[in-house]
Every structure is written in structure tokens, then in C-alpha cells.
TrEMBL record:
It is found in: Endomembrane system. This is Phosphate transporter PHO1. Keywords: Membrane, Phosphate transport, Transmembrane, Transmembrane helix, Transport. It comes from Linum tenue. The keyword Transport applies.
Amino acid sequence: MVKFSKELEAQLIPEWKEAFVNYWQLKKQVKKIKLARKPKPPQQVANSINTSSEFGFSIFDPIRSYFSSARSSSSTTAEIIKVRRKMMAGSDHEVYQTDLVHLFSEEDEVKAFFEKLDGELNKVNQFYMAKEKEFMQRGDILNKQLDILMDLKRILSENRQSGLESELTGGETPKSEQSETEEVIAALEKNGVSFVNSNTRTKMKKGGSGGNNNNNKPKMALRVDIPATTPTRTITAVTSMLWEDLINNPKKGESGGGGGDHINRKKIQCAEKMIRSAFVELYRGLGLLKTYSSLNMVAFTKILKKFDKVANQQASPSYLREVKKSHFISSDKAVRLMDEVECIFTKHFANNDRKKTMKFLRPQQQKESHMVTFFVGLFTGCFVSLFSVYAILAHLSGIFSPTTGRSYVETVYPVFSVFALLSLHLFMYGCNLFMWKATRINHNFIFEFQPSNSLKYRDSFLICTTFMTSVVGAMVIHLLLRAAGFSPSQVDAIPGVLILIFIALLICPFDILYRPTRYYFLRIMRNIACSPLYKVLLVDIFMADQLTSQIPLLRHMESTACYFIAGTFKTHRYETCNSGKLYRDLVYLISFLPYYWRAMQCLRRYIEESDVNQLANMGKYVSAMLAAGARLTYAKKENHLWFAIVLVTSAFATIYQLYWDFVKDWGLLNPKSKNKWLRDDLILKNKSIYYMSIGLNVVLRVAWVETVMGFRFKMVESRMLDFFLASLEVIRRGHWNFYRLENEHVSNVGKCKAVKPVTVPFRDADSD
């Protein structure tokens, strides 16, 4: 049977952990009562008898023993505590205070227990009321937004109908429609809607029924705040802002209107999507609040039963009666609002289809299958076996020897290195997912993943092992065909065929092989490649950071593309890709691109948030670009000047990166922290792990020193060393990922942030 403390730890909401009943602290208080009730050792009993014998026995001793036994027998039915409510000083909140009616032999411990219990009850109550108030306000705002949306849809449909009728009837608009539209406009103005023409109604009234009223139709300019999440919206927003500043601003004083963007069908659709997402998030928050209430009720029940058992009293009925009367149990506002959200969603966003509503509001999570674990083990065994076979064949055929190995290392090996580095990164991501789950870090919420189709750590390991088994199998087949005497131009096409197969699987439109994950990955890569035109989310930042650690992979992809496009696999003239000017220039571009994308993301966030830290973060990536460019140039022009430039730029970039890793990304090196040079809140209990991680990150960050040490290696050893250093960087990035998300999770816990903040599309007129 699982202990309730472990069950509570597994089910509580991680971001609200501090607001839950501190069940573990209350258990310690109960344990103190239990220790105080233990019978005294024989030596202490003898001493007490000797002490009492000094004063002799009293004739009232039998009477005392009779009343004490009677009191203990009657205490099971009489109330032994009294729970009082009183108003908190300087606040309108009620607090609970427990008085002991019955005297306990362990009075101090019992009193301390109930003081702690009262504090936990007051904490839970106040947190619940605060969150309930927050969600109620959200609900009111969304209802208001929905009313505006429905009215706008109605106005647009009426305008289209009146436009068609005016064309058929010679330009006349019926008065009934005119008055109806006027009423809707009045309702919108009450909701805070602003219009371009402040005298719209006057124009409509003057228009009457005669003449062509097309020019007198209400031209609405509601302030619709649609986030610039796509390149089209971003470019439109920038051009609109410039046009308004250059052209429209001088005319604002003349028009007397409220300003804003003209309504069109596309904006209404975007607004509807935003409101729908806001309702989904509100429903999720209300569900969390309901879970919070039920778990805390069970915790109070369990701890009071423990107290009754240890103290041999019946305090739980009296206390639980007050707990059930408290706000977090007695209030039904959250449940009623959940029902209201279900009805609204069914009516307005699901075409009265309740199944569709529940699919949005309560998505079903995938059940973990043991078959995944089985195939992970199967493919791991296959990979180890095939890799052993490959190592033996490579040794026997001498493909890595200095004389015959250059052709293989320069042409075929970079292709397989791409797959190896990618598989290693997938393996590290699987380890990240495992550790995040084990430490209750809510990565799905942080990355805004859908729990129903997000990748689990077993899935990541399955993809990784399948990937590497296929690649190593292809490497073994390649060596066997070479040894069998097949034409090199035919055999060396195998890596290209393997690449085409994996690309086809990545873009496969059928709902197989983790299609939601594959397409989400492609969307993220599109967002990164088009930075800063797309809105920057944390998952985009996270993925772009992964790319900065995969620059060797990108360079291998460049070599692979040249290898197959230029037909080098047929001629085996690998100098074609190494000596060309275009190829050498592309090396700089590929080395700069990941840093450029991250810098553009920082710039976008600075424009949106006006946070100076984003500019400082952008400076980190600019310094990394300068250091990478200096090292590439030094590899071609080995002289003292470029050696000095490499040392200065690389040392500066490394110190910059280390500072940002530890202080900003990990939140460590805080001299005022209660955990020396760490941070106040740590997920891992063993502090030494953090100190070792700091040292490991420093060591792996300075791996660039090898490039300027002047070591001379042969071609094969040099390529192997490059692959080894690239693998170390991937491992460092996987290690960095855990602490980066841990810091983000700790920040969410500190803010009790378990629900995403929502953006509403319609802004009040006074907000400008």
C-alpha cells in the first residue's frame, strides 16, 4: 500500500506545492506527540517513585486515579477541542484558531500541532480564495470579450446583407436594419469599443431612407490586438505602425475618432481563436483548483486520523466539521464556472457537439505501452551487436588506416557522423525527459506542449535506438559491399539513400510515427529560420540553443550535400568540396547561422518586452560569432596576429557564456543564497551535484582550446578528434538543458504560475 505522503507528492500541482498542506511537517508534529506519550524507562519510573515516597502516599490517590480514568473514557465522546473563527487584523479574511478544551499530558506538543494545523488551514483557504477570485475575473473578462465577438459577427453579417440589399434596391438601407445596427453599436460602446468616427450615429440618422447610404455605413475601427505571431502579421504590424506615424498622426486631431485597425473577417477569426484558447486555459485552471481543494481535504482527514490514533483521542470530527465549512471546500463558484465554460464552449466553439468540447477541454493522455520499453531494449541490443560487427569489419578492412582511410573519412564518414550526433542529442533529450519527470519539473507547461501528444522519455529512447540501429546497420552493409568488390560509386550511394529515407519519414503526411511531434518540430525549425518574424516562444529559444551546439553537424550536412549534389560519391574527388571558394564561404555562414538566429530572437523579445537583459543576451551570441569567425580564419592563416585575436575573442566569449549559464540560465552563483553560491530553491537534494555541474560545464566550455594548441594529427585522427569534441558539446548541452528548465520551473513555483497568462484581442477604449 502506497503511503499517502508519496501519493500526495505524486498528485499535487508542482507550481502550487508551497500552497498545499505541509503534510510532512504535520507528520513530524504527530511524531513528537507519539514520542512524548512513550512510557518512561524503568530507571526514570523508579526515580519518580522514590521522589513521591519522600512525601508519602495520599488518601486521595485512589480518587484521582478514578477521575482520570473516567475522564479518559468520556473523552472519546466529548469534544476535546474548540475551533473558533475570527477576522484577521487589517483584513477581511477569516482565520481559524483552535483552543484545547481537554487537558493533555503532552499539552505543549498538542498545542503546537493544532497551531501548525490552523496555520495550514488558513494558508490553504487564503490561497484558494485568491485563485478563485483571479479565475472569476478571468471569466468575467472572457464573457465580455465573447459578447463583443458575437456582436461584431452580427454587425459584419448585417453589413454584408444590407450591402447586397442596397445593390438590389438601388442603394436604400431599411430603417429596421439601421436601428438594429445602431443598437448593437450602442452595446459595443458600453463594452469599451472605440470607433473611427465618433459621430457615426449622427451620420446614420442623417442618412435616413433616401439617397445612397453606402457612404454612411458605420466604419468601425475597433482596437483588435492580434499578436504578430507570423511573418505576415509582423510585417503588417510594422508597416501599419510606420504608416500611422507618418501619415495618420497629423490627421488624428481632425477625425476625433478613437483610432485603431479596421475590422475584417480575418481579424475576427484570429480573435475567435484567441478567445477559444483563453477559455480552454481558464477551464484547465479551474480543474487545477478543484484538484487543489480535494487533495487538501484528504490531507487534513489523513493527518487528523493520525493524531487521533497517536493521542488516543477523537479530535478529527470536530476539526473536520470546520474544515468542511471553510471556503475552499464549501465554495462552489469554481464548479459552477466550469459548467458555464463547458456550456459556452459547446455553444460557440463546438457547434453544440459536447464530444468535441470535451476533446478540447479535457484532452485524453496517451497510455504508456510496455511495447515501447520492449522495443527500446530490443533495438539497444541490436545496436550494440551491429556496432561490434562494424568495429571488427573496419579493423579488418583497414578503412581508418592512414594510407587507405582518407577517402572514407573525407566522404562517407561525415554522412554517418550527422546521424551519430543527431542520435546522441536524441538520447540526451530522453535523459532530460526522464529527469524532468523524476523531479516533477512540468516541462509540458513550460514548453506549452499538449500532454496528449507530447513525447515521453521512452519514446525519445525508442526513436534514438531505432535511428542508430538503422544507421549502424547501413554502415555494416556498406563495408560488406565494399569488401565484396562492388563499385565504390554504387556502394557510396547508401548514405544518400539513408538520408532520403529519413527525410521522407520526417515529412510523411500520414498519422504514423509520431506525426504531431514531427510536424511540431518542423514548425519550430521554420520559426527559428525566419527569426525575428515569428513570435518567440520558450520552445523556440530552447531549440535554437540546441542548434548552437550542433554547428559541427551542420557543417557535416554541408559536406554531405556537396558530396552528393556535386557527384563526388562517383568520382571520389573529395577536393572538389574542400577547395571551392563557395564551400569555404559557406563554412562561415553555417557557423554563424545558429548564433544569428538566437541574436534575432533576443532582438525580437527586446522590441516586445523592452527588457535590457535581452540586448545583453544578444551580445553573448554576437561575441560567439566573432570567436567562431576568428577560429575559422586562424585555421587558414596560422600566424601570431590571428592567434592573439582567437585567444582574446574566444576567452571573452567563453567568460560571457559561463556567466550567462550560471547566473541567468541556471540562476546560480547567488552570494546571498541560503545554499552557498547556489540559489534558495533547489530541486535536487544533494548540493554537491550543483557544484560538480558547474565545474563540468566550465571544462566542456573551454574545449575550443584544442584548436589553438597547435597539436598535429593525421587526417583520420583529426576527424576522430573533431567528432569526439562535437559529442562532448552535445553532452554539455544535454546537461545544461536540465538546469535551464529547473530554473524556469523554480521561477514558476515562486510565482505560483500553473496557468498560462491569456491575451485578449479586444482592448478597452481607455487603455490607449
